[in-house]
Amino acid sequence: MTTDVPEEHLLGQFIPLHYHFNMLRDQQRMAPFREAIDLTVPDNGVVLELGGGTGVLSWFAAQKARDVYCVERNPALARAAQSFLTNNSNGDRVSVILADAMHYLPPEPVDVVICEMLHVGMVREKQLQVLHSFKERYRQRFGPMMPRFIPDTSVLAIQPIQQDFCFSGYTARVPLFEPPGPHMKNSWLADPFFYSTIDYSAEIPLAFQVATEMTIQSDGLFNAVSMLTNNFLAFVLTEKRAVTWLMNQLVLPIQKPFAVRAGETVSIAFEYQAGGSIEALQESLVARPETRSAAVSDHTYLRRAA
Questions:
Q1: Other residues' Cβ atoms within 10 Å of the Cβ of residue 91
Q2: SS3 for 33?
Q3: Are 150 and 113 in contact, with CB atoms under 8 Å apart?
């Protein structure tokens, strides 16, 4: 699928400053990043942030680091970040650099890399491409020792659901975003199926191809899938816990809805490029009933905390 809209005008490639207000006030995002950065950045360390936006994550890092390189390619955002940092304590430890994160390398080795170009399912934004490119170029310049990454790991899953697409009496089967939580449990037809674990210290995938069968657990109308992304920002081994950020889920309607009963088996298949469009992902999505039923699934499921 092609588009005539320049890439830099697409949300997820060039997020405008007024949109960042929503991210700055989102404590479900801000609080875990602040904790993870505080846990991960060493005292007097050196930090690189790729895609710095308003500079807030770089500022979190600057409370412990001696130097932070904040890379942002949107000139308006870079200017705004520099202005904001000037008015915040230890903001002088952050160097705002107008550059493309896909090509930038710091002038020295760094202890930690922060990259929050994240979108549900790793579509639209260039998180995976940027870090894949960075690791190759960093290794060539500074050797095999990699910095630590925030996030440390991202986990992707898919789930069959029954979604209400009626809005004020008007039915429109459109992709939509829903916050996670107990309110979604009534729509679940089966537990989420884990299809990728992205360890940023290991090889980073640039494409996904999934074909799986799932056992339905509740009667209903299978008319959509939910794409889930949970980011493990840091691991606190001494406390046996992780600092996580569970993103809003992306709900995609399937082409041909069908009724399902508990114990029946459905197949779901899709493929997409990391950073690709939601439209391309949706066009590849195929869901259909299987003729056989199964009481127990052979697949491993990722259960989501309420």
A1: 19
A2: helix
A3: yes
- Closest by alpha carbon to 114, among 9, 200, 7, 216? 200
Tokens of residue 220, six digits: 């209903």
Q: Please state the pTM of the whole predicted model.
A: 0.89
- Domains of the chain, each with CATH number or no CATH: 7-116 (3.40.50.150), 153-293 (2.70.160.11)
pLDDT tens track for 49-62: 999 999 999 999 99
Structure tokens at 171: 């039915």
Q: Which segments in the chain show pLDDT lower than 50?
A: 1-3, 5, 8-12, 293-306
Residues 6+ apart with CB under 8 A from 181: 306
Asked if residue 278 lies in contact with residue 175, where contact means CB atoms within 8 angstroms, the answer is: yes
Distance in angstroms (rounded) separating the CA atoms of residues 135 and 153: 15
The upper half-sphere exposure of residue 157, i.e. CA atoms within 13 Å in the direction of its Cβ, equals 24
How far is residue 249 from each of residues 27, 38, 128, 180, 184, measured CA to CA in Å?
17, 27, 19, 7, 10
